[in-house]
From TrEMBL:
Keywords: Cytoplasm, Phosphoprotein. It is found in: Cytoplasm. Belongs to the DOCK family. Its main location: cytoplasm. GO terms for biological process: small GTPase-mediated signal transduction. CDD domains: C2_Dock-B (cd08695). Pfam families: DOCK-C2 (PF14429), DOCK_N (PF16172), TPR_DOCK (PF23554). The keyword Cytoplasm applies. It comes from Sphaeramia orbicularis. The gene is dock3. This is Dedicator of cytokinesis 3. GO terms for cellular component: cytoplasm; plasma membrane. GO terms for molecular function: guanyl-nucleotide exchange factor activity; small GTPase binding. Residues 344-522 form the C2 DOCK-type domain.
Length: 1029
């Protein structure tokens, strides 16, 4: 038996199921669809018949999952989303009513304002989701299914990466797959598990000219078809082939984000090993003279799938994928969305090329490079080299060998995930060996190069190409004492910094030999920026502080957010050290950092600075200087021509106030509330400056317009901070004074007019406006601005949004407390101008917003409000004009299709509000315009309204299905009867005055005598009998 609850409402009881409302809706909808589904078959609508059956089966399965109740919160939400999508699809295709929803559940029209109901329905109709301020990350899933080759017969390594051909650079790490000579995984445990996820691809990346590039490196003999070249026990890494796949082809094929598709990549071999470093470019450019095409049955078979969202979300939604030993393969550098807590310390090293001497040999060398990462004590760092994701890290790396090449170009990248505590003092050593292909197959050491990872000033290797010196050595050379070579210059810059080298060096440099490497650092803990290090270590150079602060803007955003807390600590430490000397520059630096976090790339760091302010910020005296600087900037806005720095300060207003308020809290806590009056006075003076800026005439100054716009945009963001220090009424008074200082619409340009209204809109949507005690203070000034705009028919769309928000808040508040005074204010300020506006724009596209606003206001009005309204007219002429306006608007609502036919909830609610309003207005009509004061025009308007009302298609219950008719009758009854009784009553009150066009009325009502509703038929016959006599 289904669980339920009994709710008592006055004299009746309503039985409400305790199950999830969406389960109840799904059940009732399936029952209704079942009847219509059979009719589709009868009507030969076969296509829709089969589609609906499929959707109904899906709904039954989704409903079952919800009923079982074994889902996580995220899964439940996703199931509900799928259910509502299918319910709305079916209702739309079956011609059923639109169901307004909020958070996947049906809304009760009685619990929300009409304007909010309109917004919900309109947004569902447009299918427009909320836009996200943060860029969405994409992730490419790749699965290597097989490598069908028949000519290598050796182990091979396949390296997959993403390559931007327009910028000619690799943009991702490599995904490495080790295969045996039969083409299967070298590790048997990895069968069907050779997959990777290329993470953090931005929408911008997907628009690049991207390719998936696969390089195949075999491990075996020096020459594939010559068994004489090297003994079988000696293994060399040798280039074999390359395959490419255009991502544009992938995107055209993968239409669904959940879809996984197979692709075949042909593996081309290089005709000349000297061209190996750019074989992928040659294939992409189709330079077919530089590579050889394979046979048709030869290549890599991969499957691809594009996923979207944050990685944790992807992990939750695709657990089957992540359970397959998935190798996460990251972008080189930081993603477009940088998340706090994303700790990385990766150095990407690319072996570019080398120039080596022949060394007395008749042929050129076969050069292999071995890389080690060594710590300051000479020990090799274990497992700090990664050839690619998907395989364990190693302690040494051996390059592939190019046959007989003294000028090899490798362009092979490896990742060095070096622990942060081992980075300082560590260095890289490259050993060069000639791989002989004679009987013994010896690998003879002939030279080495090295480079420290960090410079003496604490910065790391810069992201660029580095030309390293090559030092001569042989197999007998010992590297046990690395100090012997670390004292030598590793490159030209190093040589210039140590001019007095001793003559008897332990290793001699080979002047004709050079080795090039390039590096890219992706670290959240280390920096390559000298200025940032100098700022963090300012006490070592106090004389350079002013210069360092002046250069802060030149530091990249990635570097600043990595050290955000340290940078902020430094700035406030400088402020404490010497406020007079450093105050203005610290303020500028703080503004720069705050605005940096407004960038979408760093938006996720806003919680980091919030946490810093609440938990780590210790500048108890900072508020004084911050207020002083902010006020100084505002006071200068009328004087200076260039106002870039002032505008930046205005944009940073929210977080400046966060620092000000938290600083004052710390000071008050430390001093038991000392200097409270001085603080309040300084805030009062600051608001005077804010009002001063907004009151300036900006029509002749574009820069001042931008300053005022920046201030108005940021102004609503400071309310919550002020509420920590002041009462609700005090903050409301500050805001009212500020909004009241803004010029009227005739004194400002259109762009500023829009900004002003947007600021008012955000004020109405703020937490401050939800308090009744502050709303009573703010509402008059808000209504004043709205009234002016409606009178002049300016910015109607923004005004309707503001009114919609106000009505929603008042509707919500009315359920907890009285809103009589607020509604009274709105009636006095808005009712007449809303009617006038609707008469002007009723046939235009955005009239629905204003109709919903008018209906919201009328619905909120009580008998008291109508009584005050009708008694406050100064003359009968004013009352007559009002009645004619509102009757005309009501008639237009029924003549024009303001709300679509499938929006019956909105249509019925409109009808209900019209009939209730008519009941409130009809006594005033009879009292003021009967007998001696009889006015044909206003009475004719009233009776025309009733005719149209009763003739509305949406109220003709006989035309509805039995289920829908029952819903309507249960909810609001037959509203035609109510209006008919109202008409009958008013006709009787006219007495003997029969000067209206009775025939017209008789003609309109005779048809309704045949209506099936007995109560309605009885009222019609009563009316007709009186009319005829």
């Amino acid at each position: 038996q289904k669980k339920s609850a009994c709710i008592k409402i006055v004299l009746c009881e309503t039985v409400v199921p305790l199950e999830d409302p969406i389960i109840t809706e799904t059940t009732s909808t399936l029952q209704e669809w079942g009847v219509l589904w059979k009719q589709l078959y009868v009507k030969h609508k076969v296509d829709l018949f089969h589609k609906l059956r499929h959707v109904m089966n899906e709904l039954i399965d989704l409903r079952r999952q919800l009923i079982q109740g074994h889902l996580a919160q995220d899964q439940t939400r996703e199931i509900k989303r799928h259910i509502t999508v299918r319910l709305d699809w079916g209702n739309e295709h079956l011609g059923l009513d639109l169901v307004p929803r909020k958070e996947f559940e049906m809304v009760d029209p009685d619990q929300i304002s009409v304007s909010e109901l309109y917004k919900l329905g309109d947004s569902m109709r447009q299918r427009h989701g909320d836009s996200c301020r943060v860029p969405v990350s994409h992730h490419l899933f790749i699965n290597l299914k097989s490598f069908t080759y028949n000519s290598i017969s050796e182990d091979a390594d396949v390296f997959f990466s993403l390559y931007d051909t327009r910028e000619a650079k690799q943009i991702s790490e490599k995904f490495m797959v080790k295969l045996n000579k039969n083409g299967g995984p070298k590790n048997p445990e990895k069968v069907d598990r050779l997959c990777a996820l290329f993470t953090d691809l931005s929408s911008k990346d997907l628009k690049r000219d991207l390719y998936i590039v696969a390089h195949v490196i075999r491990t075996g003999r020096m020459l594939l078809n010559d068994s004489k070249k090297g003994p079988p026990h000696v293994q060399y890494r040798r280039p074999y082939g390359c395959a490419v796949l255009a991502m544009s082809d992938v995107f055209h094929t993968i239409t669904d984000l959940k879809e996984e598709k197979d692709f075949v990549l042909k593996v081309y071999t290089c005709n000349n090993e000297n061209e190996w470093y750019q074989i992928h470019e040659n294939i992409i450019r189709k330079s077919n003279t530089k590579y050889s095409a394979p046979s048709t049955n030869y290549g890599l078979i991969i499957s691809l799938q594009l996923l979207r969202g944050e990685l944790e979300q992807i992990r939750r939604e695709n657990q089957a994928v992540f359970n397959r030993a998935l190798a996460l393969t990251r972008k080189l550098g930081f993603p477009d969305v940088i998340l706090p807590g994303d700790t990385r310390n990766d150095l990407y090293l690319t072996l570019e090329r080398g120039e080596f001497e022949r060394g007395g040999k008749s042929v050129q060398k076969n050069i292999e490079v071995t890389l080690y990462v060594l710590y300051a004590d000479g020990d090799t760092l274990k497992d700090c080299i990664s050839l690619g994701s998907g395989e364990p890290n190693t302690s040494e790396y051996r390059s592939f060998v190019l046959y007989h090449n003294n000028s090899p170009r490798w362009s092979e990248m490896v990742k060095l995930p070096i622990p942060i505590d081992r980075f300082r003092g560590s260095h890289l050593r490259f050993e060069f060996r000639h791989c002989s292909t004679k009987d013994k197959g010896e690998k003879k050491l002939f030279g080495f190069a090295f480079t420290p990872l960090m410079r003496e000033d604490g910065t790391t290797l810069s992201d660029e190409s580095h030309e390293l010196y090559v030092y001569k050595c042989d197999e007998n050379a010992t590297f046990s004492n690395q100090g012997l070579y670390l004292s030598l210059p590793c490159c030209k810059e190093d040589f210039n910094s140590c001019p007095n080298l001793p003559a008897n060096l332990p290793f001699q440099r080979s002047p004709k030999e050079t080795f090039w490497v390039s590096t890219i650092l992706c670290s959240t803990k280390l920096t390559q920026n000298v200025d940032l290090l100098a700022l963090l270590n300012w006490k070592a150079h106090p004389d350079r502080v002013l210069d360092i602060l002046g250069r802060l803007r030149q530091i990249s955003g990635e570097e600043i957010v990595k050290f955000l807390r340290d940078v902020l600590d430094t700035l406030f430490c400088l402020l404490d050290d010497n406020t007079d000397k450093y105050g203005p520059l610290v303020f500028q630096s703080l503004v720069f950092i705050i605005n940096l976090l407004r960038d979408s790339r760093f938006y996720h760091f806003r919680p980091v600075i919030d946490s810093y302010i609440q938990n780590h910020f210790a500048g108890a005296l900072a508020y004084k200087e911050l207020i002083r600087c902010l006020k100084w900037y505002m006071d200068r806005s009328a004087e200076v021509v260039r106002q870039d720095h002032i505008q930046e300060a205005m944009r940073a207003l929210e977080y400046l106030f966060k620092f000000i308020v938290q600083s004052r809290i710390l000071y008050s806590r430390a001093t038991c509330g000392m200097e409270e009056e001085q603080f309040r006075a300084s805030i009062q003076e600051l608001f005077q400056s804010i009002r001063f800026v907004l009151s300036l005439d900006s029509r002749s100054s574009e820069n001042l317009v931008f300053t005022q716009a920046a201030l108005l945009n940021s102004f609503p963001d400071i309310f919550d901070e002020l509420l920590q220090m002041f009462t609700v009424q005090e903050v409301a008074e500050y805001v009212r004074g500020t909004l009241g200082s803004m010029p009227s619409t005739v004194d400002i340009g259109q762009s500023m007019d829009v900004v002003k209204l947007q600021s008012i809109a955000r004020t109405v949507e703020s937490r401050l406006f939800f308090f009744p005690e502050s709303r009573s203070i703010l509402l008059p000034v808000v209504l004043h601005h709205i009234h002016l705009h409606l009178r002049q028919q300016r910015e109607l769309l923004i005004c309707s949004g503001i009114l919609s928000s106000i009505f929603s808040i008042i509707k919500t508040s009315s359920m907890e407390s009285s809103v009589q005074e607020e509604v009274e204010m709105m009636v006095e300020s808005l009712l007449d101008v809303l009617l006038q506006t609707l008469l002007s724009i009723m046939s235009k596209s955005h009239s629905g917003e204003y109709v919903s606003c008018l209906l919201s206001l009328l619905r909120q009005m009580t008998e008291i409000h109508f009584h005050h309204l009708l008694n406050n007219f100064h003359s009968k002429e004013e009352l007559k004009e009002f009645l004619l306006k509102i009757f005309c608007v009501f008639r237009n609502l029924m003549k024009l299709t303001i709300f679509p036919r499938d929006w019956s909830v909105m249509r019925l609610l409109t009808s209900h509000i019209i009939v209730v309003t008519t009941q409130f207005l009809s006594p005033a009509l009879h009292k003021n315009f009967s007998e001696a004061d009889f006015d044909f025009k206003v009475w004719n308007s009233f009776f025309s309204l009733t005719v149209l009302y009763i003739n509305q298609p949406s109220l003709q219950l006989e035309a509805l299905s039995p289920a829908k008719r029952k819903k309507v009758l249960d909810k609001s009854g037959d509203m035609r009867v109510i209006m008919a009784y109202e008409l009958f009553s008013m006709w009787q009150k006219l007495g003997g005055i029969i000067i209206l066009d009775t025939n017209t009325f008789l003609h309109q009502y005779i048809w309704h005598c045949t209506a099936k509703n007995s109560a309605f038929r009885h009222s019609m016959f009563s009316f007709l009998s009186v009319s005829v006599t």
